[in-house]
Design brief:
The complex is a heterodimer of chains A (395) and B (140).
Chain A: E1 3-4, H1 15-26, H2 37-57, E2 64-67, H3 70-88, E3 92-96, H4 101-112, E4 116-120, H5 130-136, E5 141-145, H6 159-169, E6 172-176, E7 195-199, E8 210-214, H7 240-254, H8 257-275, E9 281-283, E10 294-299, H9 304-313, E11 316-317, H10 323-326, H11 333-337, H12 342-345, E12 348-352, H13 359-378, H14 381-387
Parallel strand pairs in A: 1-11, 3-4, 3-5, 5-6, 6-7
Antiparallel strand pairs in A: 2-8, 7-8, 9-10, 10-12
Helix pairs in contact in A: 1-7, 2-7, 3-4, 8-13, 9-13
Chain B: H1 5-12, E1 25-31, E2 36-45, E3 48-57, H2 60-73, H3 78-82, H4 86-92, H5 101-121, H6 134-138
Antiparallel strand pairs in B: 1-2, 2-3
Classes of the chains: A alpha/beta (395), B alpha+beta (140).
Chain lengths: 395, 140
């Protein structure tokens, strides 16, 4: 049995997304910048897609810019805010300690150029506190960037409250909604969002395409110079099949979104009930303010990469925030940001479900995870020390 | 694939896995903070490592390098075992990804630490030179 449980990494494309993509590849291969009919048909198509996507987040079509995905959208949003800051001589940007690296690394670059970056703390529940934002704002703050839902622990941030604070102070508010779009209700007006990053492959669309919403009145800065596509703000011939497929996938995802979300959350909660029975384990971050499909747990005394490899052998594709899986020496910055000690963060497991997940999938995961954890503990010198009382359990 | 077939074989079917109640030497290296700890137990008879066991907390390559290192020095004299290099372990495993080389260093260190423990218990106090300890020094 194979169980795909890494939907926060990427999702399986839906049939309609694939069909739409193939159809535009086969039939509507015209360049939207061309004046003849085939070009204009493609242009009209992407404008329809723009309108559909805009409607989902309650923005205007003109405020949607197509990009190559979430990372590009995040980069462009940060650069856009920074350029406005330079003009206004406001060089303070606020974000959180557990943002995606597309945001954090962009801000590190700006720091070298003299920007002042504040990282808001996140607490054990994986949530940002609006009062911390209020305290961090000053007269030099130009932009605040807080992710809608975290990619590792799935916690949903109080976006509406954060947005309201920014709006009151006249500060640009960006949110990386890559994990949230297609899974949670998003309304840029109600939530006071000025910029919002999207990525198609997180809601059963294709990889390599995304979008950035930028509120009218904010001057967008280019990352890519060239032709006049996307109102001159993102050069390069439009990825027509990708854009069309993204819109199709999004419309399908938001259709009955709440109902589907309840179903996914119910499967996830069943899995929590089973896995929490493993001694010395814990769920990371709030279980309530959380994406329906996300489960992130730590198991004391074991390391995440070996856990993933053995789970893979038993048919489960999942993810971990251990150092070895991140390719660096430190475990996930997200798990450290919510206060987990290094040795516990190394033993993390992220399971992310989707609407394609089944009861059988959950049963299988609930069967194999305890087996693998128990085996790895049996060969772990740390576990041995804990068991024999030479070390104190942390969780 | 991230790992060679040999690494995966040693990871899935580790040789000499376990602990030893009456070990003549025990070496533990690494740090939980860095995500890998290796503990090696040796039984020594007539200067020869007659039995060896290990326990490892760590990633796939940490488990595989511990397994391979124990296999390479079982039945060898202490002097021969001390000559085991991390490079030899890596070669025997048909290579490791660059960021996993430190695991092989840890395996070499664990072997040395076990022999050092044996030596100190048996009044042969020569200190063995360590390349590094834990992750700060050797993670490459």
């Amino acid at each position: 049995m194979r169980v795909y449980a890494d939907n926060a990494a990427t999702t399986k494309m839906s049939d309609i997304a694939i069909e739409t993509m193939v159809s535009y590849m086969k039939n509507e291969y015209g360049n939207p910048s061309s004046l003849y009919e085939k070009g204009q048909t493609a242009l009209e198509a992407i404008e329809r897609a723009r309108k559909s996507i805009a409607e989902v987040i309650n923005s205007r079509p003109k405020e949607i810019y197509f990009t190559s995905g979430g990372s590009e959208s995040d980069n462009q949003a940060i650069i856009t805010g920074a350029e406005i800051g330079k003009k206004k001589n406001k060089r303070h940007i606020i974000t959180t300690a557990f943002e995606h690296h597309a945001v954090l690394h962009s801000l590190e670059k700006l720091k070298k150029q003299g920007f002042d970056i504040t990282l808001l703390p996140v607490y054990e529940d994986g949530l940002v506190r609006p009062e911390d934002l209020e305290k961090a704002l000053n007269e030099n703050t130009v932009m605040v960037s807080v992710m809608f839902a975290n990619n590792e622990i799935g916690t949903i941030q109080p976006i509406k409250e954060l947005g309201a604070i920014c709006r009151e102070k006249g500060v640009i508010f960006h949110t990386d909604a890559v994990q949230a779009l297609g899974h949670l209700k998003i309304d840029i007006e109600e939530m006071n969002i000025d910029m919002l990053s999207m990525s198609a492959h997180k809601f059963h669309g294709p990889k390599g395409v995304g979008a950035l919403f930028v509120r009218k009145g904010i001057r967008v800065s280019n990352l890519i110079e060239g032709g006049a596509q996307e109102k001159g703000k993102r050069a390069g011939t439009e990825n027509v099949p990708g854009i069309m497929s993204m819109a199709a996938a999004l419309l399908e995802s938001v259709n009955d979104m709440e109902e589907k979300g309840k179903g996914i959350a119910s499967l996830r909660n069943q899995l929590i009930e089973e896995l929490i029975k493993i001694p010395h384990s814990k769920v990371n971050g709030s279980v309530i303010d959380r994406l329906p499909g996300n489960l992130n747990m730590c198991f004391e005394g074991i390391e995440g990469e070996s856990l993933l490899l053995l789970l893979d052998d038993k048919g489960v594709s999942a993810s971990s925030g251990s150092a070895c899986t991140s390719g660096s020496l430190d475990p996930s910055h997200v798990l450290l940001a919510i206060g987990l000690p290094h040795e516990i963060a190394h033993g993390s497991l992220r399971i992310s479900l989707s609407e394609y997940s089944t009861k059988e999938d959950i049963k299988h995961i609930a069967k194999v995870v305890p087996e693998v954890v128990s085996y790895l503990r049996s060969i772990s010198p740390i576990w041995n020390d804990l068991k024999e009382g030479r070390k104190e359990y942390v969780i | 694939m991230l790992y060679s077939d040999k690494v995966m074989d040693h990871f899935r079917n580790p040789r000499n896995l376990g602990t030893m109640e009456d070990a003549d030497g025990v070496g533990e290296v690494g740090n939980a903070k860095c995500g890998d700890i290796m503990k090696i137990y040796i039984k020594v008879n007539d200067n020869i490592i007659t039995d060896i066991k290990f326990n490892t907390f760590g990633c796939g390559s940490a488990i595989a390098t511990s397994s391979m290192a124990t296999e390479m020095i079982k039945g060898k004299t202490l002097d021969e075992a001390l000559e085991l290099t991390n490079k030899a372990v890596v070669e025997a495993l048909d290579g490791l990804p660059n960021h996993k080389i430190h695991c092989s260093v840890l395996a070499e260190e664990a072997v040395k630490a076990a022999i050092e423990d044996y030596n100190s218990k048996n009044g042969k106090g020569n200190k063995i030179e360590h390349n590094c300890s834990g992750c700060s020094g050797c993670c490459g």
